[in-house]
Structures are given as structure tokens and as C-alpha cells.
Amino acid sequence: MKRLIAYVLTVSLMAAASPSAALPDAVTLFLAKYMHFKGSDLSSLEDGDVVAKSLDTDVKRELAFIGATRVEATASSLVAQFRDIENFKKAEAVLKVKKLSIPPVREDFNGLKLESDDIKALKKCKPGKCDLKLSADMITRLRRAISRGESIESAYQDLLFSYVQSYLSSGNAALCEYNDEKKLVRLGVEFKGILSNSVYLKDAYPEFYQHLEKEKPLSGIETFIYWSKETLGFRPVITITEVTIYQLPPRNVVITSKQIYANHYMDGSLATTLLMADEDLDQTGFYMMYINRSRTDMLGGLLAALKRSIAKSRSTAALKENLELIRKRLEDGSEKSK
Fold first, then answer.
1. 88, 61, 29: which is closest to 289 by C-alpha?
2. Residues 6+ apart with CB under 8 A from 334
3. Whether 181 contacts 128, CB under 8 Å
4. CA dist 270 → 138, 144, 240, 275 (Å)
5. Preceding amide of 250 cis, omega within 30
6. I need a labelling partner for 111 at 20 to 30 A (CA). Which of 16, 37, 273, 277 fits?
7. Count of H-run helices and E-run strands, the chain
8. Is the Cβ–Cβ distance between 175 and 262 less than 8 Å?
9. SS3 (DSSP) at 29
């Protein structure tokens, strides 16, 4: 009995010495209203846990996820890491990352290497029948380059460089139309659909939403583009992503990662990272919320429901692990700087 009493007293004292951090009202309202966080989710977040879950979507090809955690560091430290995207994205599954120059130059794509299977596939590529996601114009230009005896890899790099230039010049109107299969996939339409499902952005940050939707000029915006080659599914996937950073006084930040190209699997993706400062407690801590909405061609067929279930489970687990690593990296860096 004495041991039991001692144990209870010890636990009580530990709990009193390390109270849970109460969530700021803005964070609670956002997560409850838009992310459907329940009391147990909010309690876990208050206790310092990383909470990750899937979100409902009425689009069969779309998957959506939310991850949230408190970070004992400055929001500016995460912004700095985003800017250093080549180091920030380092992971076992990430084979190569290259941040493009401003403005981009052709040499930015020299390190982009194709898999041997992709090179073989590009030799046989035709509009409506291609193993890589490309527009009809891209496929035509590629076939001309091959007929002239040019390197397929170099010609592919040329295509992506030209595509990025067009995007920077014309914005969403220049987003690719995948013509690798009979059914045309318009990235502009896919992005518009993903954005319209991101009601949380429209309500909480209307001026930023309009910037993404209609590309209205917005002061305080910082953007850059990078390409990456990452292992996804059964093969490496090449993607091109535009990062937009919007810092709001005093210490809140919105960061979006908009996929503008992928050579396999993906038909569009928008990741949003929200950094909400904890004004009530201190001048360093913030709450990080990562929301990803992606559309993919991998969820069709007879086993669509099973594929979706597996994708949800694996993606949620991976998201939680990734946020834990980011938090640790930021907090370790914050401790060293003291």
C-alpha cells in the first residue's frame, strides 16, 4: 500500500511539473472546424503528440491528410529550412533535389537523370499512348528530337526547362495537359478542383487563396521552384514543384507546395504548411499544421477500395513520422543556437 501511495504521489507531482500546453483558440477553432479534430485529437496535441489523420474527400482519385504538432522553435527557422529545400528534403526515398535558379537556366536540369525503363518508354511514346506523363506537344517535340539523333535524356530535360519557362510566364494557363492516355488530364482543372476543396485556405487566408486561384499580385509573397526525383510506388518519380511562402505579421506563415508536373502516378497535388504562433505562452513556440491534397491515377480498378485503404494507412503513418523528424530537427537546432 505504501508503494502504491508513493507511486500515485510521484505520478501526480510529475503531471503537475509538466502541464499540457493549452491550445490557442485560433488553433483549436481551425482544427475543429476544418480538419474535424475531436476532443481526443486536441488533447493529444496539447500533450505534445503529433496527430495525423486522413480527411474525407468526394473525389475518388483524391487523397487528403492533415498532420499537426507543436514545435518549440521559431517559425522563421522552418521558413529558413524550406528555402534550403535541397537539404530540407533529404531522406532515403529522395534520390535528388535541385532548387532552380531565379530565373531558371537550362543547366538547372543537367542533373536530372532518367531511369533506363523511362528512356525505353520515351522511344515508343505517342500521343494517347505513353508510359510517362507528357502533353501531346511535348511528345511531338520529343519524337522530333529523337529523329534528329539527339539524346533522349537531354531532350527530356529541354522539355521540362521550356515547360517551367512557360509556367513562369503564363501561370496556371500553362499547366500541362497529360496526353499519355486516351483520357486527357488537365492539370489546370485538377489544381482548380484541389484548391476549391481547400476551403480552409479560402476562409482563413482569402487574399492568399485568390493569389493561388487567380494569381492576383500579393505583397510579401516569396516563390521558388525545384525538381526532385523520389521513390514512389514501384518506381522513381520526377516532379516539379512551386513553393510559395506568405508571412503574416506578427509570426504566422502559410507555405504551399504546388506540384506543376509529375512523370508518373500523380495528377496534381497541393501541400499547405500553416505555422500559427503561440502568442499566449512564449515568443518561440508555434503550431505546425501540414495538409496535403493529391490526385493520383493509382486508385482505380477492381481493388480501388483496398488500394485507397492501404494508401490512407501508409500515408498517415509516414506523415506522422515525417513531422516528428522535422520537429526534432527544428528543436535541436533551437537548443544549439541558445
1. 29
2. 72, 73, 74, 77, 284
3. yes
4. 24, 33, 12, 16
5. yes
6. 273
7. 12, 10
8. no
9. helix
Do the Cβ atoms of 89 and 96 come closer than 8 Å? Answer: no
Q: How many angstroms separate the CA atoms of 267 and 48, rounded?
A: 35
Q: Read off the pLDDT of residues 78-104 as tens digits, 9 standing for 90 and up.
A: 999 999 999 999 988 999 999 999 999
What does the mean pLDDT of the chain come to?
88
Q: How far is CA 303 from CA 158, 298, 300, 309, in A?
A: 38, 10, 7, 10
- Residue position matching grid coordinates 535541436: 332
Indicate the pLDDT class of residue 3, thresholds 50, 70 and 90: very low
For 336, counting Cβ atoms within 10 Å of its Cβ (0-12 exposed, 13-18 middle, 19+ buried), the class is exposed
Amino acid at 294: S
Cell of 211: 493569389
From CA 12, how far away is CA 168, in angstroms rounded? 59
DSSP classification of residue 284: S
Q: ∠ CA 306-95-309 to the nearest 5 degrees?
A: 10
Query: For the chain, what's the residue count?
Result: 338
Alpha carbon distance 105, 299 (integer Å): 36
List C-alpha distances in Å: 42 to 31, 200, 263: 8, 18, 38
pLDDT at 8: 31
